[in-house]
Amino acid sequence: MSDTRRRVKVYTLNEDRQWDDRGTGHVSSTYVERLKGMSLLVRAESDGSLLLESKINPNTAYQKQQDTLIVWSEAENYDLALSFQEKAGCDEIWEKICQVQGKDPSVEVTQDLIESEEEHIEEMPETSPLIDLPTCELNKLEEIADLVTSVLSSPIRREKLALALENEGYIKKLLQLFQVCENLENTEGLHHLYEIIRGILFLNKATLFEVMFSDECIMDVVGCLEYDPSLAQPKRHREFLTKTAKFKEVIPITDSELRQKIHQTYRVQYIQDIILPTPSVFEENFLSTLTSFIFFNKVEIVSMLQEDEKFLSEVFAQLTDEATDDDKRCELVNFFKEFCAFSQTLQPQNRDAFFKTLAKLGILPALEIVMGMDDLQVRSAATDIFSYLVEFSPSMVREFVMQEAQQSDDDILLINVVIEQMICDTDPELGGAVQLMGLLRTLIDPENMLATANKTEKSEFLNFFYNHCMHVLTAPLLANTSEDKCEKDNYQTAQLLALILELLTFCVEHHTYHIKNYIMNKDLLRRVLVLMNSKHTFLALCALRFMRRIIGLKDEFYNRYITKGNLFEPVINALLDNGTRYNLLNSAVIELFEFIRVEDIKSLIAHIVENFYNALESIEYVQTFKGLKTKYEQEKDRQNQKLNSVPSILRSNRFRRDARALEEDEEMWFNEDEEEEGEAVVPPVEKSKQEDDFPDSYEKFMETKKAKESEDKENLPKRTSAGGFKFTFSHSASAANGANGTNSKSVAAQTSPASSNGSSSKNATLTTAVTATKGSLVGLVDYPDDEDDDEEEETSPRKRPRLGS
Questions:
Q1: Are 283 and 199 in contact (CB under 8 A)?
Q2: What is the DSSP string of 530-578?
Q3: Interval 745-762: pLDDT, tens
Q4: Contact by Cβ (8 Å): 160, 117
Q5: How many Å separate Cα 322 from the centre of its chain?
Q6: Helix, strand, or coil (residue 366)
Q7: Which residues pair with 31 in a beta bridge?
Q8: Which residues lie in Basic and acidic residues bias regions (predicted)?
Q9: Are 557 and 512 in contact (CB under 8 A)?
Q10: What pLDDT does residue 651 have?
């Protein structure tokens, strides 16, 4: 329909060089008697009023952009644009304009503006001559500055000025005037030259940049830009570039063209970043050519260095040579860091070749050496280089560390070096540790692991990581929670443990089998939940998030582990400790229980209601806990109905046989699991050795830990509770399950399951519950000193508050 095809928006360029919307209407081209020629008319779609009446002048330069825009200058400093809704309408009007001007529409669309301008210049000498530049003299500087400033608003006039400056070699003449002004201390002239040179930069022409940034001109250009009229004193940019900024050659660069290119890039970057004011939103494209100029220079530098393999080999040789002194090594690492930063400008295929060259020359073994050094600056630069490599190809890094594992001890593996750098970060805010944690996460993320026909990187690398590296990552966590309380609870330790927990939470979500083995073998969740006692709420929330991810998997193995270990207890203690405060901790704990209710996780619902409902029933500002009780009772009713539907002669025998079979299966699973897991992860017996090898910051703790190992563990003292109700955190779950057994109704002692979920149901006699728990817990958590505790606690099971019968 012609209406939408001819629908346009009219724009005019205002004084601030922003396009103003003048309205929407429909465009037509007709002969207007008053203007004596074909004209463009736009009538507003709202009321039919005339938005635009513009004669198509045979000499005006019209420009077609992006298939739906036509732009032209109506008079000096008055630019117009039509933005079409449809390409077809734009083409139609464009043909009319070209018809009037005697142009071929297809050629006009594609040809460069400069060429079209040159054609116009030949056709219209009277109306649109090339800009006449004033003679380059001191008394004309103000006039030149006004001219340069005035053309910036019109693309066409900018082109003409650029051509004039280029044709007359005008820039060099201006820079000679600058030297005269500076010698005469002519401040007014210097201020005008600042405006002129800044304006010429904003013309955004590569041909002019070539002249301005040449060796003979660039320092005078920088000199002109020192005399900003808005500053009381000129800046000393030239002094900085010549005296303060030192060009360091780690290995002498013999290629003079390469040296010149490096100098030029540094200085132009300095002009863009330091001297020129930060462009406003409307000026962002003003310096696009300057940005491109720097970009292509960097590409050239990287390519020239990369082709010189002798140069790079020499750099690597010195970097890994033990005889190299620390200052030299620091310079070499900084060179590589900048080299990698420049490489980001390369096209993808060239970047591939670049990193492959570095890998072939041995960048990873070299990084392994420098990342373990004492110098903070060197380590920081090495971390940046490592991050470029990990972002480029995580697989390349993984392949290297797996090959390395066959020849080296765990301590010096690259990933363990990275983990230890993360753990030993001295920055109170752990800036470096956060960066390293992000890189570790990328390396252990299965999403970017390859699976080929002959091997799967995922299984191989995760086996390697859990066998060789996981104990290093979790060492601070296990060391800090060994006595069922936070050993160190200062801010920096809390920050570090929060980072480790974030990584472990990521593992729970993405590694399923490996992390499940590890959590159960090390009883990791119990240790993590000790951190619920931390005075730092963010750390308590990290511990809670870890548990929430585990429960979110709805995996019955995990659920059984949680109920047998009575691992809801620290969470509920934290909720009660928090009292009536309405904060993130309160919301997060309630969300955990709400998730269990909504997803109807039967084994967990039964455990929570049977063990903790008395403490939670007073919480009425949410219906979560009442909802859990309702679900529990509904499930009990369902079980009873199912039981009643079985003929009475079969009921007790059949049910008891099923429960026993389940119990035997469960025992077998846990015992097998213990044997399998002992191979899949580092056996607990080796724990003290691994932790002893851990960095100095944990040695002190390890000594006190050994001293305490001979003593009997005692329960934590009860904390004062804001909620008025308290549990005692017990190390073993057997006492809790013993109490469970006593709570079962005597009438249904032989027939009613203690848990409502069939997969973990038990005969509800006290002896069976205690024996089963004891047997399975030893299989689940293999701590050498746990057995004494279990015996002690079994002899005097604590009574827990119970749901009334």
A1: no
A2: GGGG-S-HHHHHHHHHHHHHHHHTT-HHHHHHHHHTTTTHHHHHHHHHT
A3: 333 333 333 344 433 333
A4: yes
A5: 35
A6: helix
A7: 38
A8: 686-717
A9: no
A10: 53
Going by C-alpha positions, the residue among 555, 547, 512 that lies closest to residue 531 is 547
Distance of alpha carbon 467 from alpha carbon 727, whole angstroms: 37
Helices (H), 69-140: 87-101, 105-110, 113-123
**What CA–CA distance (Å, rounded) separates 105 from 114?**
17
d(CA 257, CA 532): 63
Q: What is the pLDDT of residue 130?
A: 62
d(C-alpha 592, C-alpha 612), whole Å: 15
CA dihedral sign, ordered 609, 611, 616, 622:
negative
Strand locations in 67-180 (E): 69-75, 78-84
Residues 6+ away with beta carbon under 8 Å from 426? 376
User: What proportion of the chain, given as a percentage, has pLDDT over 70?
Assistant: 74
| pLDDT interval class at 650 (50, 70, 90) | low
Concatenated DSSP letters for 583-612? SHHHHHHHHHHHHHHHHT-HHHHHHHHHHH
**Nearest by Cα to 666 from 521, 754, 780:** 780
Q: Which amino acid is at 442?
A: T
- Pairwise CA distance, residues 56 & 514, whole Å: 75
Cα atoms in the Cβ-side hemisphere of radius 13 Å centred on 14: 7
Nearest to 27 by CA among 113, 86, 110: 86
Q: How far, in Å, CA of 524 to CA of 690, rounded?
A: 16
Q: How far is CA 633 from the centre of its chain?
A: 46
- pTM of the predicted protein model: 0.59
Query: CA torsion sign, 529 to 530 to 533 to 534?
Result: negative
580-603: average pLDDT: 93
Residues 74 and 54: beta-carbon distance below 8 Å? yes
Would strands 7-13 and 78-84 be described as parallel, antiparallel, or unpaired? antiparallel
What residues contact 576, with CB distance under 8 A and at least 6 apart?
615, 721, 722, 723, 724, 725, 726
Residue 40 or residue 711, greater confidence: 40
Q: Is the pLDDT of residue 299 over 60?
A: yes
Cα 500 from Cα 503, distance rounded (Å):
5
Q: Tally the C-alpha atoms within 13 A of residue 9's C-alpha that lie toward its C-beta.
A: 10
pLDDT in tens, 523-547: 999 999 999 999 999 999 999 999 9
d(Cα 90, Cα 100) in Å, to the nearest integer?
Answer: 16
The conformation of residue 712, written as its DSSP 8-state character, comes to P
**CA–CA distance, 310 with 265 (Å, rounded to integer):** 23
Burial class, 308, CB count within 10 angstroms (exposed 0-12 / middle 13-18 / buried 19+): middle
pLDDT of residue 563: 94
CA proximity to 285, closest of 374, 407, 155: 155
Reported as a single tens digit per residue, the pLDDT across 491-524 is: 999 999 999 999 999 999 998 889 999 999 999 9
**Gap between the Cα atoms of 514 and 105, Å rounded:** 67
Q: Any bridge partners for residue 489, and if so which? A: none
Residue bearing the bigger pLDDT, 443 or 346: 443
Q: If we measure between CA atoms, which residue out of 550, 540, 468 comes closest to residue 507?
A: 550
Please list, in sequence order, all residues whose beta carbon lies within 8 angstroms of the beta carbon of residue 323, skipping any fewer than 6 positions away: none
List strands edge to edge, sheet with 62-65: 50-55, 37-44, 19-32, 7-13, 78-84, 69-75, 62-65
Maximum pairwise Cα distance, the chain: 120
User: In degrees rounded to 5, what are phi and psi of residue 572?
Assistant: -70, -35
